[in-house]
Amino acid sequence: MIRVFGRPTTACDGISRRELLQVGGLSLFPALTLPRYLHAKQANGPHHNSSAKSVILINLFGGPPHQDMFDLKPNAPANVRGEFNPIDSSVTGVQVCELLPQTAQIMDRLTLIRTYSHKYNSHNPYNVLTGFDGGSDRENYFAKRSDHPSIGSVCQHLDMGPKDIPRYVVMPAYPGFSQALRRAGPYGGYLGSQYDPLITVCTPSFEKDKAGEFYKPVTPGGEPLLPSLDNLEGVTADRLNRRKTLLQQIDESVSSLENTRATKSMTKFQEQVFSLLTSTKTRSAFNLSLEKDSVRERFGRNLWGSSCLVARRLVEAGSTFVAVNWEDANSGGHWDMHSNTFGMLRVHLPVLDQMVSALILDLEERGLLDSTLVVVMGEMGRTPRINGNSGRDHWPQCGFALLAGGGVQKGIVIGKTDNQAAYPTDRPVSAGDMAATIYQLLGVNPQMLVHDLNGRPIPVSHGGKPVFEAIV
């Protein structure tokens, strides 16, 4: 019986699933006992020349109100137009919300899609991270093995990027962490759990120890942390430096098991995972103390700004896909604004404005923007009409996406909406189209097929086509 940290337990194969997770400190690599999870499949789709080496995707969980941010309708009726005024941007004829002045200044570096449109009315990043929008809350509220794989998982499946840094990372915690559930979207799904991301952990902090209410947000402090440094029982940084000792303990623990091919593969894979997490390069990427105070201030000393700064450090080190999931339901840190929309935006938008502009300018100054695709979006938009609680409700029919760097056109707007920003009147962009665009920029064939649990071939972009107007 294997025992690494804590009480021994067993599963049907004689090895505890929980203990296997504890060995590497990764709740992100479940089911490592299955042999088919231990080795990457061969890529079955051709690559082409890529514009982007890395992606940073900022997901605004809950559904940001597009008509209060990037598609204001100042001439619409009062119950539609909202409380904010538009301001001019650095692109002639393009206006944005007055609470986004720094973003307005860099619009000449961005592509704005105003017509992200689908029918998937569900609160998870499933459509954002996979490109699939044919599900429902009933089917996709919780992550499950039969889910479609995320874009980041497909990249790992194709063995993209260096092997001495985590290639696919989700920060600051798993989607759903603030509600104690694991929402669908970021995982390997039917490709296998070895393609799951490295998911960081966090402990949001608040001034005077006061968090907000569900519709009265307070911006959390804190940083994304490596799970091996925070979650492993009895592990300290000093102990992590003694990696060989721990691996020897693993080897001794499994020596009594049958000398099977599966066991050997499991041990090798687990060693690779632990080596990756405890490497100097990985730990350095998460060490924000190495940054100047001026850089910390530029991004914002809060959980979201710090996550974006770590994202920049990760792509600088070679990571392929990094997702920042803006979510904290316990303190109003979400974008599901059924009530108090404008009060919530007065808190959220200045933070978003600061961190997005800082990320793009910082990447540009370091010579990384041309090779890094930055995407800012949510899973849906909000209703044109303001409800009786000064809120906007779910509206997947129309939303927005911002793109920058990595082969993206500069200073253009794609798509038009009606006079209430309710429906696209020109160039709707589906979830599959967005995924296909990201794949295209990464040099992955958007029509590449992978096989689900029933052996059926599934296009990774689910029928979507790249938005070539957005691509240089």
Give the SSE map.
Blueprint (H helix, E strand, L loop, with lengths): L16 H8 L29 E7 L17 H4 L4 E3 L6 E3 L3 H5 L4 E7 L9 H5 L6 H4 L10 H7 L10 E4 L26 E2 L27 H4 L6 H5 L1 H12 L6 H17 L2 H6 L7 H7 L3 H15 L3 E6 L14 H25 L6 E6 L3 E2 L11 E2 L3 E6 L7 E3 L1 E2 L6 E3 L4 H12 L6 E3 L5 E3 L13
Parallel strand pairs: 1-7, 1-8, 4-12, 5-6, 5-7
Antiparallel strand pairs: 2-3, 4-11, 8-11, 9-10, 13-14, 15-16
Helix pairs in contact: 9-10, 13-14
Features of the shown structure:
single chain; eight-stranded mixed sheet; 472 residues; Alkaline Phosphatase, subunit A; alpha/beta; 16 strands
Report on the structure:
This protein is globular. The strands form 5 sheets. It has an 8-stranded mixed beta sheet with strand order 6-5-7-1-8-11-4-12, with helices on both faces. A two-stranded antiparallel ribbon has the order 2-3. It has a two-stranded antiparallel sheet with strand order 9-10. It has helices spanning 17-24, 78-81, 101-105, 126-130, 137-140, 151-157, 227-230, 237-241, 243-254, 261-277, 280-285, 293-299, 303-317, 341-365, 431-442, and strands at residues 54-60, 86-88, 95-97, 110-116, 168-171, 198-199, 321-326, 372-377, 381-382, 394-395, 399-404, 412-414, 416-417, 424-426, 449-451, 457-459. It is built from 15 helices and 16 strands. The protein starts with 16 loop residues before the first helix and ends in a 13-residue tail after the last strand. With 472 residues, the protein is α/β, with parallel strands linked by helices. The protein has a single domain, classed as Alkaline Phosphatase, subunit A. Mean pLDDT is 84; it is low at 1-46, 229-251 and 253-258.
